[in-house]
């Protein structure tokens, strides 16, 4: 779609009848940045004409910003993967150093003596590392919240998606999915998914299947970008996480790929153990996941569910609340929290 030709923008001034023709890109400008010929006649933007462009420049600017924001998101994800990998190495080091029962027959007396000397001080080490991690995580969360506030990241919702657009998006997705699944026509499928996303940019299945099509075409960097978009729309979507991990593996980023698969496996494993009523084992798996990422929504939610199923309602509420801090509109978690509150009242 050629947006410069297809989109008509009304002048923001309600008294003007003309459509927008010019756009102001001056950083210090305080006036409406979109304006019509009537605005020009009354002298708007006259002091910085060098920063005025025709309307099609707006769509070029939007496209550029989208690309740059994707690059930024990719950079942030890579940095987070590095942090998570460091956590994984820390956990592995603790396990190797302090869990030696299987290696005991192969250790000499000096090695056993060294272990004993250091393990006697384990409680002190445990307190130090727990306090440091809590401090670092709190500082990190505070900085993230500050960034969100400073950048006004959640101040605007630019559009409401109409029902016809949602239906059209779903219709196009089904056409694209047939090309992807039945015919292996990935390039053609991607074009259809792009059309679907023009109508509904949050259509999760179009985002995921575009990512998967890109992976099948060997375009792994692009596949990671679109898998991340799919995970923003639905953080629980396991196939999107797998697509990202497999793309990372193909790019030789093995640590990041392994970490992604570990998160996926732990999520599946903990939920399966809970359903089998093996609560102790499930809680151990969840704790491992939360050590890696203390703000992992599904791990918090499932830990709350484990505690709930064991009738530990007060403790369950703590983790439901933590999950709702991440996704305040998650209906399942809100419902389970209300069930806990009702159970406490009837005790």
TrEMBL record:
Pfam families: ANAPC3. The keyword Repeat applies. InterPro entries: TPR_rpt, Ycf3/AcsC/BcsC/TPR_MFPF. The keyword Coiled coil applies. TPR repeats lie at residues 170-203. Keywords: Coiled coil, Repeat, TPR repeat. Residues 130-157 form a coiled coil. This is Tetratricopeptide repeat protein.
């Amino acid at each position: 779609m050629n947006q410069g030709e297809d989109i008509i923008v009304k002048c923001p001034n309600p008294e003007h009848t003309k459509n927008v023709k010019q756009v102001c890109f001056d950083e210090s400008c305080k006036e409406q940045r979109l304006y019509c010929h009537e605005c020009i006649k009354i002298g708007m933007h006259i002091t910085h004409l060098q920063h005025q462009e025709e309307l099609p420049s707006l769509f070029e600017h939007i496209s550029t910003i989208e690309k740059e924001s994707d690059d930024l998101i990719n950079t942030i994800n890579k940095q987070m993967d590095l942090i998570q990998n460091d956590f994984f190495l820390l956990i592995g080091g603790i396990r190797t150093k302090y869990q030696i029962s299987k290696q005991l027959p192969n250790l000499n007396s000096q090695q056993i003596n060294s272990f004993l000397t250091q393990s006697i001080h384990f409680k002190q080490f445990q307190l130090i590392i727990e306090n440091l991690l809590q401090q670092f995580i709190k500082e990190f969360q505070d900085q993230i919240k500050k960034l969100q506030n400073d950048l006004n990241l959640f101040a605007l919702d630019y559009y409401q998606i109409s029902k016809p657009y949602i239906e059209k998006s779903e219709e196009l997705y089904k056409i694209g999915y047939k090309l992807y699944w039945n015919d292996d026509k990935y390039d053609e499928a991607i074009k259809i998914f792009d059309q679907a996303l023009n109508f509904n940019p949050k259509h999760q299945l179009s985002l995921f299947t575009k990512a998967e099509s890109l992976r099948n075409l060997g375009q792994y960097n692009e596949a990671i970008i679109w898998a991340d978009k799919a995970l923003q729309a639905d953080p629980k979507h396991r196939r999107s996480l797998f697509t990202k991990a497999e793309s990372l593996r193909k790019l030789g980023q093995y640590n990041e790929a392994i970490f992604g698969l570990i998160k996926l496996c732990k999520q599946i494993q903990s939920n399966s153990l809970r359903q089998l009523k093996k609560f102790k084992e499930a809680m151990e798996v969840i704790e491992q996941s939360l050590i890696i990422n203390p703000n992992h929504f599904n791990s918090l939610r499932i830990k709350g569910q484990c505690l709930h199923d064991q009738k530990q309602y007060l403790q369950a509420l703590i983790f439901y609340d933590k999950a709702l801090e991440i996704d305040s509109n998650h209906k399942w978690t809100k419902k389970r929290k209300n069930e806990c509150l009702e159970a406490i009242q009837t005790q």
